[in-house]
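In the design runs reported in the main text, the only information available to the sequence generator was the tokenized backbone. The following block is the verbatim input for one such run; it is reproduced so that readers can re-run the procedure and compare outputs position by position.
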């Protein structure tokens, strides 16, 4: 009877069956194997469909993990023939047969490496050549190639993954197939340090698979940033990680309440916490995060001064962002003696009494307290303040700039967002800051090319200039800057200038003069992104260009031009 049932498969043409992600099926699985069935009987039954490589029985340790059987065929068509029949009867025992998941199937694409007179066998190349092939592919193509053979898998794991970015985005991972997701998390897990979830998703089937893989491979992610996710969505993701390794957590606009902060208390080594724009927080449990060093409460306006005072009494913070949140009292300032970085929405005179203050960001305004604030700031921190970032569309008067430049140790200076803050007189005053490394003059309509040249000449440590939307800056400024820089000893890093919205066109990147001097100067053409808590905290040069605009005009054009012949390059001037 069994021979007759098996015979009807041999009478038809066998076809290959595919698992998820279009992976040919070689391995079958009996999910719940009866205890009476032995491997000999199973092998006798399934060998009627084709040649077997192995029959393996996996015994379950508990009732929740029943005994399973893995049947490995040598030919995918034979496995497909066995799968045509969903239920099989062996020794009067009815069993259900299904295909194993795609990632459990063996390496299959032997046709790529078959010896032929017309094709090159890929595996005959040395490791260096294979590495160069991988480098010309994007990440998904690299993953697909690594799945083709065990040797390619080792090339990807040991030679490619170590050069990948340490920051990874969930939206990129969701574009991969299930097998590619598992392969990536399996091989690149030790190199992933920062995970960013910056998008809302309608379906969560793929995310559940990713959570299962994260739990399987026990990823040691140190920094996790979740943006615009509801509490129900991120809890499963959070519990799938190794909580003891998470030292930095940001929850941006996640509609958090105080009760939701309780689950974050399970993170024993949490030192950085960003809670920007969670308007429902009242700050009841903030005092429980005893190891916290950096805290962002931007636009958490429901937090009271009393609750925040309790928080400051128990914590030893070095970084604090309370813009549009609370107005700190003198008691709060006294409790936060260890602060070296603070961000405020307005001038508060007793902030200058912080003994370790190194970085200050404040919304500038022309009020009677302004003069007293800057005078006190110069008096207490003329020798130790490193960063002063002024924001807001308020006019910055020359006497105020004259007081600012008395902070002669400044390395970073932002001059607000008002269109008439930047001028020739302002630049002349700023040139007195010999240690200046970064300056922001964006939206300045009075700035011209010749006004900025004294800044390049006198501030020899300058590394970054923000000229975004300075509409009267032309390419002549770039050529003059290159001439000045070429007369100096080359710095370790090029001078970076953000020129979005100026009269400088992206065609300048194609010039051979610019390309030959890229070690001296780098131009960025991307627009600024709105600062969102700790993900984009800081300079628009480093964070926005590297994280949010990873394929800028700069990198694309330069890579394209490097592939052109030399004579074509010179012709593009």
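Verbatim output:
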């Amino acid at each position: 009877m069994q021979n007759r049932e098996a015979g009807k498969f041999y009478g038809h043409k066998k076809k290959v069956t595919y698992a998820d992600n279009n992976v040919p099926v070689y391995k079958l699985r009996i999910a719940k194997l009866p205890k009476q069935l032995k491997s000999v009987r199973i092998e006798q039954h399934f060998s009627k469909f084709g040649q077997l490589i192995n029959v393996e029985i996996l015994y379950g340790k508990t009732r929740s993990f029943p005994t399973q059987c893995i049947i490995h065929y040598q030919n995918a068509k034979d496995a497909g023939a066995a799968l045509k029949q969903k239920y099989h009867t062996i020794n009067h025992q009815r069993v259900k047969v299904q295909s194993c998941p795609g990632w459990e199937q063996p390496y299959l694409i032997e046709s790529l490496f078959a010896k032929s007179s017309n094709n090159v066998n890929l595996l005959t190349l040395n490791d260096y050549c294979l590495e160069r092939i991988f480098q010309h592919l994007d990440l998904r193509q690299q993953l697909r190639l690594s799945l083709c053979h065990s040797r390619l898998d080792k090339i990807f794991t040991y030679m490619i993954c170590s050069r990948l970015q340490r920051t990874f985005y969930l939206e990129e991972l969701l574009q991969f197939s299930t097998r590619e997701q598992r392969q990536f998390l399996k091989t690149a897990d030790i190199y992933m340090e920062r995970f960013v979830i910056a998008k809302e998703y309608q379906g969560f089937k793929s995310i559940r698979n990713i959570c299962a893989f994260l739990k399987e491979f026990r990823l040691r992610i140190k920094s996790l940033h979740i943006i615009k996710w509801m509490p129900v969505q991120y809890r499963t993701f959070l519990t799938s990680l190794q909580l003891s390794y998470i030292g930095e957590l940001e929850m941006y606009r996640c509609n958090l309440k105080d009760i939701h902060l309780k689950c974050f208390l399970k993170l024993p080594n949490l030192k950085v916490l960003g809670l920007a724009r969670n308007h429902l927080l009242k700050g009841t449990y903030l005092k429980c995060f005893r190891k916290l060093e950096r805290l962002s409460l931007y636009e958490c306006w429901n937090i009271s001064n009393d609750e925040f005072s309790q928080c400051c009494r128990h914590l030893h913070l070095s970084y604090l962002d309370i813009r549009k949140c609370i107005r700190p009292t003198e008691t709060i300032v006294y409790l936060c003696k260890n602060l070296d970085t603070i961000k405020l929405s307005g001038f508060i005179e007793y902030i200058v009494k912080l003994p370790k203050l190194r970085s200050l960001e404040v919304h500038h305004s022309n009020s009677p307290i302004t003069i007293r604030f800057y005078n006190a700031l110069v008096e207490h921190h003329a020798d130790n303040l490193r960063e002063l970032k002024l924001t807001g569309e308020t006019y910055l008067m020359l006497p105020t700039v004259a007081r600012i430049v008395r902070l002669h140790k400044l390395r970073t200076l932002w001059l607000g967002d008002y269109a008439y803050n930047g001028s020739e007189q302002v630049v002349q005053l700023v040139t007195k800051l010999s240690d200046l490394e970064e300056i922001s003059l964006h939206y300045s309509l009075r700035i011209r090319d010749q006004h900025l040249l004294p800044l390049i000449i006198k501030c020899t440590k300058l590394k970054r200039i923000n000229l975004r939307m300075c509409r009267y800056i032309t390419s002549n400024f770039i050529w003059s800057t290159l001439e000045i820089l070429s007369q100096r000893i080359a710095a370790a890093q090029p001078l970076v200038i953000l020129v979005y919205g100026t009269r400088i066109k992206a065609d300048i990147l194609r010039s051979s003069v610019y390309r030959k001097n890229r070690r001296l100067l780098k131009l960025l053409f991307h627009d600024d992104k709105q600062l969102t808590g700790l993900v984009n905290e800081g300079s628009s040069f480093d964070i926005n260009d590297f994280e949010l605009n990873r394929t800028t005009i700069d990198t694309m054009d330069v890579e394209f031009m490097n592939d052109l012949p030399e004579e074509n390059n010179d012709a593009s001037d």
